[in-house]
Specification:
Largest sheet: 6 strands, antiparallel
Strand content: 15-25%
Strand order of the largest sheet: 9-10-11-14-19-15
Structural class: alpha/beta
Shape: elongated
Helix content: 10-25%
Length: about 450
């Protein structure tokens, strides 16, 4: 029997629907054929007759249990009893029915009197533990020993896109506005639950020059007395395929929506409210900060499970390409930035612009003008973790926009974009900062945004 032929019935109470939906998607991604009323019942069907047939046709019945649902009466209890009947008719020592605990709960005293069976007689599976899904696959493999299937080409489904309009501005070295232009980009929304959404902007593929030319680097080193600018060399051409990128850094509201979903946990727990600036009136719309690289990776993994779409941290090349949005100037605004255009330490200047306000904290996302792709807060607010390992310069860097891991320092990763606490010099499109902070660090100007591919693999 092949994986795709193993039908798995998921019995559950409505209180556990979110967790069971996530389990359904994970089983589907693993190649099985899960059966779930919300996904497989067709409008107009008589569920009282369809569900018993689905139970009888299934090779495996999973009784999903939790503290919220173990004492619930009704049709879910009838499903369990139907499964016990089926179990009794199966060959001895076969695995047909698995009590699966979604959290630390008691197994209900549910008996099938004719055969003397009790749900408690069956060894349960603790899905809430870190290796829960691996243990479930172990049980399935033990019983069915699925045959290998020929690899299938992934089916790419383009998400439905909408259009949004915005204005971009350009300034000269004095910070004076010299141009304003209307633009539009495409995007789609992911529903994170409870009215929280994530907007993903379509970034067209293209070729750009990454890094800073040697002559400009030497000017920067001399002007600002910092050798770190040499990390932006050698300048090189990179071709980046199209992708989607978060319109904003991940906000505190978006973080809580995913961090609170412990049923989606992959490797580690997440603090629900890690941000230093979490008690402000607009904190839900501010970027989440005080998250380290591993926190961001876990967030992406949970988001991928929830949406059945692969979410990742961006590569350095993807970030710089997206930030520049076709520009070659130090900032996507032009020769400099001002405190009216971004949130950074504007009491310091980069070129000939006047001193501005130093806000000394994060600001809500989308407050300042975007770049030509429709991305906000790429300069300032919070620095953004990249997926790459740290390299001291671009010698040997990939030219296809991919994440650079080989021969890097895998205890560290680059951060991009500057922050509310940094001078404008460190908010430039090309800035690479910095090599000595580790992936485990949680600091109140460290945040992130996410990317995903152009299609969804089903």
């Amino acid at each position: 029997m092949k994986k795709s032929e193993i039908q798995i019935f998921l019995a559950h109470a409505s209180e556990d629907k979110p967790a069971v939906l996530a389990l359904h998607e994970r089983l589907k991604q693993a190649g099985y054929k899960p059966w779930l009323d919300k996904k497989d019942l067709i409008p107009g069907q008589n569920w009282r007759s369809v569900i018993p047939k689905a139970i009888a046709d299934s090779q495996l019945f999973i009784a999903c249990l939790s503290q919220r649902s173990i004492s619930k009466q009704g049709f879910v209890q009838r499903e369990f009893k139907m499964a016990l009947n089926q179990y009794a008719d199966r060959p001895p020592n076969s695995i047909y029915l698995i009590p699966l605990r979604l959290d630390e709960c008691d197994i209900p005293d549910l008996r099938q009197e004719e055969y003397g069976l009790n749900l408690r007689d069956l060894h349960w599976l603790d899905y809430w533990k870190e290796d829960g899904f691996e243990q479930l696959e172990r049980a399935i493999t033990h019983q069915f020993n699925p045959e290998p299937e020929e690899p299938k080409k992934p089916v790419i489904v383009t998400p439905p896109l909408s259009v949004f309009n915005f204005e971009i501005v350009r300034v000269n070295a004095k910070g004076e506005q010299i141009n304003k232009e209307s633009k539009q980009s495409q995007y789609f929304r992911e529903d994170l639950g409870n009215g929280i959404t994530l907007e993903m902007v379509a970034i067209p593929g293209g070729t750009f020059t990454m890094g800073t030319e040697d002559e400009e680097i030497e000017k920067l080193v001399k002007k600002f007395n910092w050798e770190g600018f040499r990390r932006e060399r050698p300048q090189h051409e990179v071709t980046v395929p199209s992708f989607f990128m978060g319109k904003y850094p991940i906000t505190q509201a978006q973080w809580k929506a995913i961090a609170s979903r412990t049923d989606l946990k992959v490797k580690q727990d997440l603090d629900f409210k890690p941000a230093y600036f979490k008690d402000r009136p607009d904190s839900d719309r501010r970027p989440v900060e005080q998250v380290n690289w591993y926190d961001a990776i876990e967030f992406c993994a949970r988001l991928s499970k929830l949406t059945v779409r692969e979410y990742l941290l961006h590569s350095e090349a993807e970030w710089e390409y997206a930030c520049r949005a076709g520009t070659t100037t130090p900032f996507y605004f032009g020769e400099t930035i001002t405190g009216e255009l971004a949130n950074y330490n504007a009491s310091n200047t980069y070129a000939d612009e006047p001193n501005g306000e130093y806000r000394n904290e994060t600001t809500r996302v989308g407050q300042f003008p975007p770049n030509a792709f429709g991305l906000y807060d790429m300069h300032g607010n919070v620095r953004e973790w990249c997926a790459d390992t740290w390299h001291d310069n671009y010698d040997g860097a990939p030219t296809d926009g991919s994440v650079w891991i080989e021969n890097g320092n895998d205890n560290r990763s680059p951060l991009r974009g500057g922050s509310w606490g940094y001078n404008p010099t460190y908010c430039r499109s090309a800035i690479r900062y910095d090599y000595y902070f580790r992936r485990v660090n949680r600091i109140n100007n460290y945040g992130f945004r996410v990317v995903c591919g152009a299609g969804r693999t089903l």
